Batch of 2 targets.
Target 1
Amino acid sequence: MTVLAELRNLTQCFGSRIVLENLTLQIQEGEILALLGPNGSGKTTLLKVLAFLLKPKSGEIKFQDETVTDKNSERMRLQSALVFQRTVLFSTSVFNNVSYGLKMRKMPKAVIEEEVRKALKLVKLEGFEKRSAKKLSGGEQQRVALARALVLKTRLLLLDEPTANLDPKNASIIEEVIATVNRELKTTIVMATHNMFQAKAIPHRVALINQGRITEIGTSADIFGRLSRNLASFAAVDNTFAGTARITDAGTTIVDVGNGVQIEAALQKQGETSIFISPQDIILSKNPLTSSARNVFRGRIIQISDLGSLVKLTVDVGKPFVVQITKRSFGEMELNLGSEVFIVFKASSVQAI
Amino acid sequence: MNQILDGIVRAFQLILSGDPTVYGAVYRSLLFSGVATILAVLWATPIAMLLGLKDFRGKSIIKGFFTTLIGLPTVALGLFLWLILSKAGPLGFLGLLYTPGAIILGEALLVTPLIVSIATNAVEAVDPEMINLAKTLGASESQASIAVLKEAFNGIIFSNVAGFNRAIAELGVALMVGGNLAGFTDVLTTNISTLTARADFSTAIALAIILLAIVFGINLIIVIAKNPHVLLTLGRMPQ
C-alpha cells in the first residue's frame, strides 16, 4: 500500500508540556485509521499536526513523499481538511459555510453550487442551503461541518471525535458518511475517538495513543483481540471494567469489578476479563425499578455534562458508570449533582472485550 | 423649559432657513470627525487583531494601557497636542496648529483607545479555533484573519460608531488645536460652547439638538443597515 503521510520522530510541546513525544506514524493511502486514546492523550494535537496547522518542535512530516516545511505548508493544507471536535461554524448560511473552502480555491460559481448540493445530500441535509448554520441543532451543525470538509475532496480527511456529543441518529448518519466517502471516493481518513466500539467497527487500523505516544498499532482485529486489558485501562473509555468472572448455576456470568460492584452478564466467561456496557443501554431511575433487568445499582450523580439534546451523567455506584438521558428527562426528574439514583441494565447489555 | 422649547423652535428655523453658519458647522463636524474616525480605524484595527488573536508577553499591559486611555480628558489631549504642534513644538514645522488637520489628528488619537478596546473584545469573542478552521479549509494567513474580522464584524462596527460618536461630541481637542476659527475650524461643539458663553442659549440649544439629531440619525442608519427587519417591526406597530 502507498504511504500517503508519514510522521517521523515527532515531538510537540505547549510551553514546557510535552504533548507528543518522539512519535512515528505512517498513514496508508485509502485507509481509515482510528486514533484511540483517552482525553489528553494527544489525539487532537496529532490531527492538527497532520492538518499542517501546527509546526512540531522536532521531527519530520512527509506528505506524498514531500517534506512539509514553513514554505510549503500553506500549499500542503489544500490536500487535507480537519473537522474539529467542537463544531465551529461561520455566522452565515449553510451554503456559505460549506462553500468557503471552494471559494478559497477559486472554483467557478456553478461548480461550487453543484458540489455544495452534493455534499449536503451526502450528509442528509438537502435543502438546507439558505438556513442559518448557527440556528441548526447540534447534530445538524456537525453534519454541516463535515459537509464543508467533504466538499473539498481532499486526499486526507481528519476527524476529531466526529460523533462525540451526538445523539445516536446523528452519530449513525456521520458513521455512514465516513464509510461511504472512504469506499467510494477512496478518501484516506484519520479519526480520533475514545469510543471503543466505533474504533472497532469502522476503521481498517487502530493506533492506541496515550500520553503523547503511540503504544500499539495494528488492524482492528489485532488490537481488540490481543489488548483487551490495555483498552480497559483507558480511563476515558466509558463503562469499561476489568474484573474477575465466574459462571453461575443459571448459566450467566457474575463479574466482580471491585468496590462491591458485581455485574451479571449473559455470557460465559471465567477468570480475568474485561467488560463494557454502552451508556445508551443503562436506564436511570430515582426509585428502584422492578423489572427483568439483572443489574440494579444505587449510587449518586458525581458529574453532569450538557451534550445539547442529551445529558451525560456519571453515577458512582462504587464504580463510575456513564449514563445518557435526554435533556427533557433530566429536567423532569429534577436531577442534580449528588442526587441519589438507581442505574438499571440487562445482563444482555454487558459485552465482553 | 421655555429656553428648551425656544431652542427646538430655533433649531427648525436654522435648518429650514439653510443658515450657512450652521450648515458649515455641521459639514465640518461630520467631515473632521468622519476622517478622524477613518484614520483611527485604519491603525486601530490591526492593533485590535494583534491583541485579539495573539498571545505575547506584555499583552495584558498593552490592553490595560488602551483601556485606561479611553478616559483621557479631551482638553488634556488638546493641550498636549497644542504644545507639540505649536511653532516651538517638535512638530511645529508641519504648520498644523489651528487647521482642520490638527483637529482630525487630535480626534483620531482621542478615539483610538476606544476603538482598540472594543474591537479587541470583539475579536477575542470570536471562537479561538476560527483561524485554524479557515486555514484547514484552504485560507492563507491573511484570508484567515479576514474570516475572523468578518465574525467580529458587529463588534468592529460598534467600535467604529462609538469612535465616531466620541469624536463628533468632543470639545477640548477641537477648541485647543482648532482655535474655533469661524468658517474654517469651528464645529458644532465649539459653536455651542461659544454661544453659551455669549448667553445666546436658544441658538446653543438649537445646535445641541442638531448635534443630537445627527448622532441619533447616524446610529439609527447603522442599526437599520444591520437589521433591515427593524423597519418592518416599526411598520407593524399599532397605530
Target 2
Amino acid sequence: MKAKEKKDTAATTEETGKTYDTPAPSQRSMSEVCALCEALIYVSEEPISVKLLADVLNEDKLTIRAAVEKLAGEYESRNGGLQLREVAGGWQLATKAEYHEEIRAYLKSRPNAKLSLASLETLAVIAYKQPVTVPEILEIRGVQSATSIKTLLDRNLIVAKGRKDTVGRPMQYGTSKDFLLQFGLNDVSELPSIEDFEDLST
Amino acid sequence: MEDQPTQLNFDFDTVKPEIFAESHDVLKLQLGEFAGPLDLLLFLIKQEQANIFDIPIAKITDEYLRYVRLMEGLDITVAGDFLVMAATLIEIKSKMLLPQEKSDEALEEIEDPRKELVEQLLEHQKFKNAAEMLWTRATVEQAVFPRGKIETDDNNGEINATVFDLLNVFQKVVARMKEEIQYEIEREEMSLAEMLTFLRETIAKKKSLNLNEFFGQLRSKRELVLAFLATLELVKETVIKLIQEAVFGDIIAKSA
C-alpha cells in the first residue's frame, strides 16, 4: 500500500459542505479500512460514494475502492441475507430480493403503487433518449404524454434539464437520482442497449 | 409470480379508459394516453400474424378502419391521431397500388411507401419492451430494503418545548377567549386535582395530546389556568414531556 500524505485533520467535502473531524490517518490496515467503510455504509441513509468515504476517513480513493470491493466480495461469499451493492453512484447495504416476502410480513408494508404502462413507456423514452423534449417523446410514443410526464415529475423520477436551443426553446427532460434508486441502477449507462429490445417475434 | 403488467397490446378487455361526461346523458370514453394508433397497428399486425417488414397494407388498413369505426360505435372518442394514421395508411395503400414508374436510367430502388411507418413501428415496439424491462427492475427493487432511518439531530424534528413556549400558547388562547362571547353557565368549578386527573388520564389513553387544541377547547379562564398549572405539574413529575415539531409550532404533550 502506498504511503498516505499527511492531510489536515479537518477534511471538507464539496458534496455535503460538512467538515469532518477525523484524526490524521495512521497507517490503517486494510481490514481496519474495510471495517470503517462497513460501519459508515451501514449508518448512511443514502448510498455513500467512494469519494465521500475517502473524505470522511481521510484516505485516498483507490484504497477505499479496494476496501469496498473486498467487502462486497465478503458479503457475496457469505451468502447471507444482506448484500453490499453500488447503486445511484454510491454504496449501500440492503436486504436481498429473495427475502422480500418475509420482510414485508414483518414490516407490515405493502409495495408502492406501480406506474401505469403509459408512464413506464414515457419513462423508457426519457431514460434512453435524454435529454429529450415533449414533441420528441410524442414522435416515438405516438400519443400525447402530458399526464405521464406530470406523474413522473411528481414522483421525482424525471427532472427538467434545460431548454433545447431550437425554435420555441422547448424544455428537455432527463432522469433523476431517484430514478436510479427506484430502479436499482448505479448509472443510466447500466440500462441494456435499446437495440436489445427489438422484438424478434414481429 | 406477481401480477403481470397490464397488457402491452391494444385490448378492449384491459384498456383503462378515462370517462368524462360530455353532456347530461351521454358519457364518452377516452383512451387518453393508454393506447394510440401505433399500439393499434402493432396489435393488428400481431393479430394478422403479419410480417412487420412486409406489412400486408391493404388488409391492415381495412382492419384498422374497422377498429376505428368500432371505437366510434362504442362511444370511445377517437383522438385525432387515430384519424391521421388512418389517412396515412390509406395513402400508403394507394401508393402501393399505383404501377411503379419505370425509368430507363434510374436503377435506384423506389422507396417502399411503408418504410417510414415500419421504422416508426419498430422504434415504438422497442420502447414498449424497454418499458416492460423497467417494470421488472422496479419490481425487483421493491423487494430490496435498505436500513431504515436512524435518529440524529438533523432528522429528529422534535424540539423540547420550554415553559415560555407553553406560556405563549396560553396567552394566545386567553386572548382568543376574550374575543369570543361566552355564555355564563352556572356549574361546578373544576378543581386542580380534578384537572390533573383528567389530563393524566387523557394522555395515558391517547399517548400524545396537542395542547394548542386542548387549551382551545376549554371553556373558561379558570379551566385554562388550571390546565396550564396541571401541565407544568405533570412535566415536573416527568409524567409527560413537551415537544414542538417546529419553532412556534403546536405543542404536543407526550407520555414520558
